[in-house]
Design goal:
- The chain has 130 residues and is α+β, with helices and mostly antiparallel strands.
- It has one domain.
- The protein is 38% helix and 27% strand.
- It has a 4-stranded mixed β-sheet, with helices on both faces.
- Helix 2 runs antiparallel to helix 3.
- The radius of gyration is 15 Å and the shape is globular.
């Protein structure tokens, strides 16, 4: 069951080093999103492997309820294409899903950046105008 009516703009899967091999990280990330999403499927896919101490800091921040600060930290590491999603709580909902029972990787995090309804409506109007 979906908790939001709109798919995320971007899904980011965060692994703890050593993480998956480069040749399978995209497939494993997509599978994790499909299994753990709280939104309709859709949006871009990003993934990242953090040093254990950095991953633990993000995990602890999420656990403490810091959805925005942890989202900004992770999005920053994805590079310039992810920057438009940073610092925009008026336009996006930042949701985290954590899993500490993944057989191969133990802890994995999923960040879902979901557009708020007003942003979806604005994008629809722009698409209709063009």
């Amino acid at each position: 069951m979906s908790l939001t009516p709109h798919p995320p703009a971007i899904n980011v899967v965060v692994f703890r080093l050593p993480g998956p091999d480069d040749d399978c990280i995209e497939e494993l990330s997509a599978d994790f999103v499909e299994r753990k999403t709280v939104c309709p499927l859709g949006g871009g896919l990003g993934y990242l492997v953090l040093q254990p101490e950095d991953f633990d800091r993000v995990w602890e921040g999420v656990d403490a309820g810091d959805a925005l600060g942890t989202a900004d930290a992770v999005l920053y590491h994805l590079g310039p294409d992810a920057r438009p999603f940073m610092h925009r709580s008026e336009d996006f909902i930042y949701g985290w899903v954590g899993a500490d029972d993944e057989p191969e990787f133990e802890r994995v995090l999923l960040l879902q950046v979901v557009p708020r309804p007003h942003l979806v409506e604005m994008m629809k109007r722009r698409a209709e105008e063009n």
